[in-house]
Amino acid sequence: MSSCNIPYQVPYHASIPGGLFPSRVITVSGIVPPNAKRFSINLCTGSDIAFHLNPRFDGNILVRNTQIQGSWGSEERSLPFDMPFRQGYSFTVGIICEAHCYKVTLDGQHLLEYVHRLKNLPAINHLEVKGDIKLTKVTV
């Protein structure tokens, strides 16, 4: 990283103008510190979290979930491969909003799909990134 590159502040918050709609893509690029325990990328509407992507290095799992009115739903944890995020490495996550789900890519490769639990897509208008991460680029 060059000296003129100022990293994004974490926790990071950004509005998503107009909210989500099919074909909208949000990208988050960063570096996972070597001692990272976990971080999360959240797509929010009001105080609800429509999509929570949460790599947990302390448990070597990638959790996906939704929080409605302060209550978490059932976690999705299964993947057909090992934890795709690695401590000490950079990454780019793409979240593609489709009509029925989010398609998530990691470094350009398909990672997973997450079916919408909050279906009012235009109301999902806030991005939050927090935890053990150095953000390098965000596009909404």
TrEMBL record:
Kindly state one GO CC term assigned in the UniProt record.
Answer: nucleus
Q: Which residues form the Galectin domain?
A: 12-140
User: Which gene name belongs to this protein?
Assistant: LOC110344409
Under which name does UniProt file this protein? Galectin
Q: Which Gene3D superfamilies match?
A: 2.60.120.200
Which SMART domains does the record match to this protein?
Gal-bind_lectin, GLECT
- UniProt entry keywords in alphabetical sequence: Lectin
What one GO molecular function would you report for this record?
Answer: galactoside binding
Query: Which InterPro entries does the annotation name?
Result: ConA-like_dom_sf, Galectin-like, Galectin_CRD
One GO biological-process annotation of the entry reads: negative regulation of type II interferon production
